Amino acid sequence: MAASRDPPSGEGERCRSSAGVTEEAVRSFGHNMFGGHFVFSVSREFVRRCRTPLLLQPGSDKPHPAETSAEIARLAPNLEIQKDWRGPRTWPSRSAA
Known about the structure:
The protein is 36% helix and 6% strand. It is mostly helical. Mean pLDDT is 79; it is low at 1-7.
């Protein structure tokens, strides 16, 4: 099971600094983004049945838990995993610019 994620804190501060944004709208957005049990936009069943080729860039931080990436890798039938995508080996050389 994917790690649960808590909604961001400080909703009131965000609302006071953004005209027209209500505290309820921020709270609802936070719940939609971080209150689920899997990923934001699809279910486990969708991933399991998806035949479209997927590229997974595994996460390793709180908003993108490694456990969720591992579960997607187990579920998806047509998946390529790009490992070490955040590392220096994938960054373009400055001398090439």
